[in-house]
Amino acid sequence: MNQTDPVIAILGIGTAVPDFRLDQADTSQRLAQALSENPDSARWAKRIFKQCGVEARYTCEPALLESAEDCRYFSQISNRPVPSTAERMETYKRESVPLGLNAARKALLDGKVELSDITHLITVSCTGQFLPGLDATLVQQLGLAVTVNRIPLNFLGCAAGLKAVCLSRQIVSSNPSAKVLIVCVELCTLHIQPSSQREALFGASFFGDGSSACIVGSTGPNHNGIFQLGNDHSILLPESAEEMVWEVGNYGFDLYLSTNIPKLIGRFIPEQVEHLINGGQKPDLWAIHPGGKGIIDTLEEIYGLSDEQTRPSRNVLRNYGNMSSATILFVLYEMRQELESSGSGPTNGLSLAFGPGLTCEMIQISYLPSVTFQDQFLDEVHV
Predict the structure, then answer these.
(1) Nearest Cα residue to 264 out of 286, 241, 240, 246
(2) Which domains are seen in the chain, by residue range?
(3) What is the pTM of this model?
(4) Is the keyword Glycoprotein in the record (predicted)?
(5) What is the pLDDT of residues 326-349, one digit of tens each?
(6) Dist CA 121 CA 214 (whole Å)
(7) Catalytically annotated residues
(8) CA-to-CA distance for 283 and 187, rounded, in angstroms?
(9) Is 324 left (phi over 0), alpha (psi -120 to 50) or beta?
């Protein structure tokens, strides 16, 4: 890359989580108490909670920290009514906006981007809806121009955050002066089900709440540490439509995740990665959406990745759980911090995320360390 050429990049990233922290061991114990009359389910829940790679998550719902006897989401032994879908959507409407505002403001500050520079707003969520939506509300409360181009991506699942990044790159590619603000908000814990079924318990074991935001735009030779965005690729995997199902029920959204998902990723994704890198070298950076521990394990085995290469994804899974679409920006933020701390030079990589369909979104990324006018001047002097 010629240093004087503008590049399309993620210019700034912001993340936010709710105030309430779910300790994995404590949550597992309380859930096991709620399943005391179904010992097989209790034992299975304890095992999956321990093995899923999560130590803590965050929730917008303080009721999930109550004792098993008092928690409305653990209705197996509680006499209190289970929250309806309408009640859960009221909570989503109340809690999603401040979380999204927090992440958006951090991204703007991190990228040193003014509100007046934002031309497009992409909002992403699959865990709740209301109208006027999150996009319109953020325009008003952030103070964005009322003419900003709003693009809501709703109910697309875990891959939608990276889909928004890919779409933003395409927007800026056709309009280099555009600046796209992406805001992802997911309140996954609102959909914990009062069930002893393994599918419901599996979903309850590793999903968390969080919001992330980023700015995508063109930048010149002077910049902070950024991820340049390259070619992207989207694929709907064959024979996979029933492996991840997300439907609206009377008591929140009902999620089904097949145990075959890591195997299907291992079967179909290598060909798609080869298509994207087009004969190039294996990437050094791997920003993998931690949709589950098995997904990271599968890609690690296929590509012979080191602990260092998968550490950002595993750290996010361990400390926050799977926050659906918001998670991939947490991974990129963690990765950028590690690269900055180590004093890394320019490094090529790949980011991948998976969602219902099964869908895979992927994009080439390149970490570019901070470059200032002074750095450029000194380089020219030494030449």
Answers:
(1) 240
(2) 226-368 (3.40.47.10)
(3) 0.94
(4) no
(5) 999 999 999 999 999 999 999 999
(6) 10
(7) 158
(8) 32
(9) left
